[in-house]
Amino acid sequence: MKMWKNITLDFPGTDLRYISDLFSTLDVASIMIKDKLKEPDSNWVDDPDNPNPLSGDTHVIVLMIQENQDVDQLIYEIQMIMNLDNAPDYVEEIFEDKDWVTYTQSQFKEIFISDSLRIVPPWESNSEFSGQSLIIQPGSGFGTGTHPTTQLCLRWLENNLKANNTVLDYGCGSGVLSIAAKILGAGFVEGVEIDSNAILNAEQNNELNNLIIPYHHPDSFESNEKYDIVIANILADILNRLAPTLAPFIGHKLVLSGILENQAK
């Protein structure tokens, strides 16, 4: 089996976007900027309209190279490119190539939202559970259930959704919240999503859960409905911009998530 190396470099106080551009001339298989914190602990978000800095204080750069590639030569080239007096410190990790699709799928396990609600990938949907199961195929749509904001929304729905409530899931991603609403007893449910690939993922997840929930691109979405619940799990800046769009649809409750603690007002 083929082997690879990850070379992790730490450059505190630097702009890693700039450094990654410098490194584009290196003979490497990939360049990755990686958060130093695990996802649940990190406050960093990727907002394309208002890009956050990728700083060496919060992130590291990881270079993937062939196993037989000369690491000393690579580090020397980095030293020259960055005009450093000394060779930078690094951490070297050797790992085996694998079927990355199978490996990625193996990382998705059942997620227990509560004692009566869980999310499972299709390959674990037959495992024993006495409550309700949401079957989600990991894909391009945000919302596999691992993110804290998704779990917050799911717990809110489980505790507050009334039978036959109408629900609009705005920024639906994988469809996880709209599917959960329907499984938990909602009436009419629909979703809106700007990413066409995410809509395809949501439609696939509908089929897995034997549901038919309509999903729309915002450019083609028209509704005079006032929904009992409007739910949006999106970045705070986007939520602010969407406020005039969402307001006409709010019939009773507006549920917002994706807001960092330091963004709350």
Describe this structure in words.
It comes from marine metagenome. GO terms for molecular function: protein-lysine N-methyltransferase activity. Keywords: Cytoplasm, Methyltransferase, S-adenosyl-L-methionine, Transferase. This is Ribosomal protein L11 methyltransferase. This protein has a 5-stranded parallel β-sheet with strand order 10-9-8-11-12, with helices on both faces. It has 7 helices and 12 strands. Helix 4 (148-160) packs parallel to helix 5 (176-183). The mean pLDDT is 90. Helix 7 links the parallel strand 11 (227-233) and strand 12 (250-257). The chain has 2 domains: 3-97, Alpha-Beta Plaits; 110-263, Vaccinia Virus protein VP39 (Rossmann fold), CATH 3.40.50.150. The chain has 265 residues and is an alpha/beta fold.
